[in-house]
Amino acid sequence: MLARKIALYFSFITTLFIAGCASVPTLQSMTPAVEVTNTRLAGLSMQSANVEALIEIQNKAPINLMTKNLQLDLQVAGQTIADVLLNDPISIEANGSKMVAVPINLPYQALFNAANELKGANEFSFALVGSTAFPIPGFGDARVPLNFEGTLPIPQLPKITLDEVVLSELGVRKTVMDVYIGIENPNIFPLTLTDFNIKMDANDNRLLDVRALQDIQVASGESVRKKFPLTLQIDRAGIMLYQAILGQEPIDWNISGRTDVLGLQGLSVNDLGIDIQEYLSAFK
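User: That's the sequence. What structure does it adopt?
Assistant: Structure tokens below.
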């Protein structure tokens, strides 16, 4: 066995000199350069994020090499909340390079278990810590550390509120009002609200049942206001609501509805419920 290993080693050295190696190879000179250059978000939901670690491998040796047990831990505040182990070898040609995307699934519940204070945040900082090895003939395994730091989003639902109700016309037979619904996007990426519809009651009287004609776009960290005109026939609404509109008593506004929410990298929330209750005593 020893004689066979010695023969393989000298065969390997001979190959290197034939390939034009000017000096005797060392483990350091034969070890590939490996770097996590970036991460990218491959998929996003309210429950988890699918992340890809982009790893560049540069093989400086004049022979083909393969990885052995590439491992990465995704850590927050020193705690591992997701990890991956690639047992299948990755082959890199002699004097060649390769970019590898390593997938990591991050459940947000694991993140919140490790750092509960992040529940209301829209992003978090993380570190990738790991290593891989390259079996090199005549030298054994060359282990290379992997490190990277970055940030990832934590998706949050939009905040939908009754912004204000503006009374523009008050008559004996009808009243004209503009109902303003506020939509705030707390995320670091834009949101699109589709199939947005609301029903509006005041003092248990149905006043409004409407659907937005177009999708609602909300930029990251921004708020928008949507106006829904309302013409109220007094004979249908009743004298109590009419008196409330005149300012003689507060109005109990109740807004319900639903919308679909679309966001970054496949983020989709279907049938997000809208439930707003406001008790206002005057119009603007």
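The first helix runs from residue 2 to 18.
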